[in-house]
């Protein structure tokens, strides 16, 4: 393997910019022509250009300017960025990154050389704390640009026409305490994967050792494996199964991640093309809303917390041969996996650590951005926080015991990609510093910048504005502006301590299973989870009130400095309020969420009449149907529903649960195991089940996104007041007269 990323194969990669589109302007075409000129093939030209660029960059970031000069410089460079933003293409994206890096590096240089001459210990305490948080954010920004500058855009590779050459595959479905109903769908869909039957074996790995699971597996004819202990949790469960199975490849699915029938045929071709490929990962897609989407009512309208990773970051990692194993929806080649001792057990993020070990051994890892499975998201905010704590603790453990910057086997790009993944989970303390930094001045009069307010604005605003519009362009349809701050604000307090403690002592903490398939019968406000957000909100409200008082009653107040800190405090109030809105849990009464899909269907009534219709949505327990206007079928009516795929038809007994206005809801009626398996193959297992909704959101508009976050903040304040009033009311008993 070379130290530079491998060249894309023209037969299997799409080198057009799928996120930004083809260059449609004259300037864009000129830039691309310059970038593709033969001149750049000369090594001397490359070295000379790099040296010149470095010298110019050093000059740009270090030359001292007064207030007016800096303002003019910032206005010109930001104007260039706005013009580039109108031009499509990857080259112009790189140009925007360059401008952003210049503005941010210039700010950091000025920050370190001109603003840290603190005059007392109070200024120094708060000031150096803010500087360290800014340096952390700057490092993450730079490595993030490196990581996502040129997503690889890997495409499927066809399998050999002779299916006798296709390898044997063991499908592992580890489970511990999840309900059988949740696991069933994954097992049925795994059984329907299109692959030669003599080379596909499905195994349920039951660490819960439950008799109903054993019986279910025996009835449908899939493997069932247990062990005598639960050492090393999921990783240990998989490693134990590896000892008694022999497939050349292992496909792993969390027990709530339902694979499509095309999974192996879409993914396996890359293992034929690249003999050194040890692992291929596909996206994690969820057909139920996570707590943010559910509680904020943003499901299908705003990208969720994980979409950036699977939409952009993993694809960027792939260029540098640093794609991560994510624990599910992936294929691993058995021989390399056994060479590294199986799934890693040293940390609680066994998946990413396993990929790191494979890369250290010289094996390749890959990412294919085609959704080939979908699962259940965490239902409650507390469960979501617990899952993120485990991820954060595990990445801190890896950073401590197997740091990617150290040790053998990794190339420079791989080291940076892994490093950024670990740095990301250290955001807890920096985020809390940003949420409280202006209070140092409002409460204590501490000057965290030894500079005038106007100079701070002239340097800081370009840094923030460039980063905002550049990330908006890169992340586009996978992360909207300002939402990252909401996600981090919700989690910061909870991951800060586990991350720091795990970095100090990697043995602290244990694996916790994320609960799936539950219900929330009544809406409630999670006061326990919300306590840190409430404290932050109150502190920032008090700080803002102090600022107003000083502007009103102190004639010698530093007006500009006060205004800047109050604006910053206002933004922190918005973020704290939005965090409170997430803590207001909405009801979730369905154990099995419904998936929106328009599938051809037909209804057969007991009198023999047949109505052609289509589905609105489906779940393993029922369907929503669009029927012809005027059709009235009473609730409780028994009928048969047909679902179709090509020439295949599945017929399922059902009972009407509601009807009216061209819609009909039906519940399946006592389906046999064979019928449940057939239903899964016609719904969840369809090859196109999840592809149509992936990456199809509208492009981010930063101002609109800011407005959306502000609206969520207002909603959080309103919900807080409502719940305070509810808590203050005297409780009544059911037998009160």
Labels describing this entry:
disordered C terminus; Thrombin, subunit H; 737 residues; six-stranded antiparallel β-barrel; alpha+beta; cell membrane; Spore Coat Polysaccharide Biosynthesis Protein SpsA, Chain A; seven-stranded mixed sheet
Structure commentary:
The protein is built from 23 helices and 19 strands. By secondary structure, the protein is an alpha+beta fold. Among the domains are: 163-379, Spore Coat Polysaccharide Biosynthesis Protein SpsA, Chain A; 595-687, predicted glycosyltransferase like domains (Thrombin, subunit H). The termini are far apart. The strands form 4 sheets. Strands 3-2-1-4-8-6-9 form a 7-stranded mixed beta sheet, with helices on both faces. The protein has a 6-stranded antiparallel beta barrel with strand order 14-15-16-19-18-17. Its EC number is 2.4.1.12.
Explain the layout of strands and helices.
Elements: H1 26-35, H2 43-62, H3 67-85, H4 90-114, H5 121-148, E1 169-175, H6 180-191, E2 200-206, H7 211-220, E3 223-225, H8 233-242, E4 249-252, E5 258-259, H9 263-267, H10 269-273, E6 277-281, E7 285-286, H11 291-296, H12 307-319, E8 330-333, H13 334-339, H14 350-360, E9 364-367, E10 373-375, H15 381-401, H16 412-424, H17 428-444, H18 453-475, H19 483-504, E11 524-525, H20 527-553, H21 559-582, E12 584-585, E13 595-596, E14 600-604, E15 610-618, E16 622-626, E17 638-645, E18 648-660, E19 663-668, H22 673-682, H23 702-728
Parallel strand pairs: 1-2, 1-4, 2-3, 6-9, 7-10
Antiparallel strand pairs: 4-8, 5-10, 6-8, 11-12, 13-15, 14-15, 14-17, 15-16, 16-19, 17-18, 18-19
Helix pairs in contact: 2-4, 3-4, 3-18, 4-5, 4-18, 5-12, 5-16, 5-17, 6-22, 15-16, 15-19, 17-19, 17-20, 17-21, 19-21, 20-21, 21-23
Biased composition (Basic and acidic residues): 7-24
EC number: 2.4.1.12
Pathway: Glycan metabolism; bacterial cellulose biosynthesis
